[in-house]
Amino acid sequence: MAPFRVGAIPFAGYSFLFLAEDLGLLQPGGIRLQELRSNTDVLRALALGRLEAAALTLDEVLTGLHDGLPLKVVAVLDVSAGADAVMARAGLSRPEMARGKRVAVEGSAVGALMLSAFLESAGLRPDDVRLVTTPLPETAAALRSGAADLAVTAEPWVSQLEAAGAVRLFDSQEAPGRIVDVLAVRTDMLATRPDAIRGLVEAHFGALARFQSDPRSVVEQLAAHLQVDAQDVPAAFRGLELPNRAANQALLAPGGRVAEGLPELAALLHRNGLIASPVDASALIDVRWLRGGA
């Protein structure tokens, strides 16, 4: 049987998939993890049939759905509560000072949502800033090198930039519920590869449980996947909620925080011009995998 290919960028909330592989929790030969450069690349690979599943932000899943990509959300990997931020070079100490400045931001829905929320809070319009399209892992470097004056970025780069003197002007605490990372699966895989989906979800929760019970035992593996020093691993998870299985069930159940916020998130994408028409996300969530499988 062909391998079940799963794509993700090097990001803390996604790293338990790779940690699960290191710990031997993935089905040998059944699931193949692929590290990609940006979430835009991940979505493209899904659309081209080069991946069966992926770690993505929820808004990117909605964007894919709008573009005709059939996806189901089977688990929440993390919820951003300060981990995503707009950082500025020293001297730009107030949000309104962003007017006329260059902003490094990934060409993705999450980058656009964070930038939109920041500009709204600062009383600025989109044409008040100049965009420098940059993959998320390179946004901090763009700010440090002077290629940009501000960066829409995330941990661990937020903490690294703060340590180097950059200023946090805005973060996801001020936009609650907008940035949620999920495990998404192509809809056609639900019937044809249930064992792989079940195994992937179980492996994620197994690696997460190991991290939450004994983080020091896996710090080296996480550092390698996140491309940071071992001492910087705790900072990579700063501002992230990491829901276990029970918390997932609460978030994705009818009336749960993520399920309840889906219609508003879809409407927000439409209002901000990130999707051309409204999408119906009422059937996007599939919680049976949280209960052990189909």
UniProtKB/TrEMBL annotation:
Keyword set, alphabetical order: Signal
Subcellular location: Periplasm
One of the record's GO cellular component terms: periplasmic space
Domain of life the protein comes from: Bacteria
Primary localisation category: periplasm
Family from the record: Belongs to the bacterial solute-binding protein SsuA/TauA family.
Protein name listed in UniProt: NitT/TauT family transport system substrate-binding protein
